[in-house]
Amino acid sequence: MSGYFDAIAPLAYDPDGDGPGFRHYNPDEIVLGKRMEDHLRFAVAYWHSFVWEGGDPFGGRTFDRPWFPADTMELARARADAAFDLFRILGVPYFCFHDHDVRPEGASLTESRDRLNRIADLFAEKMAAGGPKLLWGTANLFSNRRYMSGAATNPDPDVFAYSAATVRACMDVTHRLNGENYVLWGGREGYETLLNTDIGQELDQMGRFLSLVVDYKHKIGFKGTILIEPKPQEPTKHQYDYDVGNVYGFLRRYGLENEVRLNIEQGHAILAGHTFEHELALAAALGIFGSIDMNRNDYQSGWDTDQFPNNVPETALAYYEVLKAGGFTTGGTNFDAKLRRQSLDPEDLVMAHAGAMDVCARGLKAAARMLEDDRLETARRDRYAAWQGAEAQAMLAPGATLDAIADAAEARGLDPQPVSGRQERLENLVNRYV
Ligand code: XUL
Ligand code: CO
Predict the structure, then answer these.
(1) 361 by DSSP, 3-state: which?
(2) What is the pLDDT of residues 170-214, one digit of tens each?
(3) pLDDT at 148
(4) Which of 28, 180, 199, 289 meets the CB 3.0–4.6 Å disulfide criterion with 283?
């Protein structure tokens, strides 16, 4: 116990209440034959809630946490105590962390690894004592200045090797803590100017690095999923893992499309000029959907604001795609979200997560009703119904030729007539559920 959240009791489902507690998130409620908790698989992100100090480009720390600056192992342990207190209050089944979030970096790679292992010992104890499970672990290959020109894509092979050692340590710990996934987000894998950059060389390095990670996963018998998290820019001007489509092309090129899936973040989708549901639907269609980082971006600012989600219609459309994809297997809903820098109090951390969990619960329930009623899917199926015809199917089958299709089209005197897409009617339909 850290004492930091002492004034706050564990939250319960209290649909008619007015105090802290969940109005909509009821872990045991059955939705489409499955407990809500097992659908949503919520995770708290260690970095935003326990590492971020409330700084912005114009000012430093606003938060006053007793474990700051967590540059000693003792403070890192105090931070872990507070983190597990928050997990307990929220009743979340999972958490996620970067190595850099949980231990101060050592003077050498070996010391950093040892420190990570010692914190993992503490996590293991807390997890065994009823704490949450690990949704995913990841290595921070972007904060330290050694990564300023990339980790796997660095022009300096020593940085590639240093990154490999860092990832190995982090995969080992993720494996030991029974993590269900391992994430790679390439914040510095990209470039600032083409004038000093060899894109082909950098992509080959990145492809090689990912192959090494996949090989290592198999070597140690890690059964979790390797996930790439796309983002178009920030901090790098041009990030290689731009979006789902881009990452799919990258995986195909390096023969990794059956080994790696995607962790898709709401805010990153917006930065890439997409909707969250677009990214989710595309990943599902390509067979690489894995997990989600749930948050919300400011639509005006153009940068990654990582706000807690509070838009139910958006969330409903996202979970609609998740449900259509068959739901999560190893993935889950990680709140990659941070408080606003004026939200100073322990209660703010609790209420931000509780509200986000409620928003997701409402979104999930609306999505489930939309799916059960099948009206959207009926409309979608009707729209493509003509493709069920024998002649239409033959055009897609092997053996079809442009010549044969063209001759048949001329012989039939085709003159296709446009049909309404009915967008507004479908939007009206969605509005009944959200
Ligand atoms: C950065 C981001 C990361 C990843 C993990 O925008 O989303 O926190 O989720 O490295
Ligand atoms: Co993220």
Answers:
(1) helix
(2) 999 999 999 999 999 999 999 999 999 999 999 999 999 999 999
(3) 98
(4) 289
User: How many C-beta atoms lie closer than 10 Å to residue 218's C-beta?
Assistant: 10
Q: Which amino acid is at 169?
A: A
- Cα gap 389→15, rounded to integer Å: 50
Q: Is 265 in the pocket of ligand 1 (CB under 6 A)?
A: yes
| pLDDT for residue 179 | 99
Record the tokens describing residue 335, joined without a space. 């709140």
Asked whether 45 and 335 are in contact (CB, 8 A), the reply is yes
Mutate to test the pocket of ligand 1, among 231, 243, 295 (most ligand atoms within 8 A of CB): 231
The domains found in the chain, sorted by start residue, are: 30-373 (3.20.20.150), 394-433 (no CATH)
Measured in whole angstroms, the distance separating CA 132 from the mean position of its chain's CA atoms is 18
Determine if ligand 1 sits within 6 Å of the CB of residue 304.
yes
Nearest Cα neighbor of 98 from 124, 59, 145, 135 is 135
**Which atom in ligand 1 lies closest to the alpha carbon of residue 306?**
6
Which residues are designated catalytic?
98, 101
Residue nearest to atom 7 of ligand 1 (CA): 336
Give the residue carrying structure tokens 């509005």: 431
The beta-strand segments (E) located in 250-288 are 260-265
Tell whether ligand 1 has an atom less than 6 A from the beta carbon of residue 293. Answer: yes
Closest CA to 314 of 280, 282, 275, 271: 275
Residue 229 near ligand 1, beta carbon < 6 Å = yes
Q: Is the CB of 181 under 6 A from ligand 1?
A: no
Short-list 161, 144, 143, CA closest to 152: 161
Measured between alpha carbons, how far is 69 from 104 in angstroms, rounded to an integer? 10
Could you tell me the two tokens for 362? Answer: 């409402």
Measured distance CA(397)–CA(334) in Å, rounded: 41
Choice from 94, 243, 265, 270 to test ligand 1 binding pocket (greatest atom count within 8 A of CB):
265
Buried b / exposed e across 298-332, counting CB within 10 Å, b at 16+? eeeeeebbbbbbeebebbbbbbbbbbbbebbebbb
Q: For residue 265, what pLDDT is reported? A: 98
Q: Is the pLDDT of residue 32 over 80?
A: yes
- Kindly report, residue by residue over 222-255, the tens digit of the pLDDT: 999 999 999 999 999 999 999 999 999 999 999 9
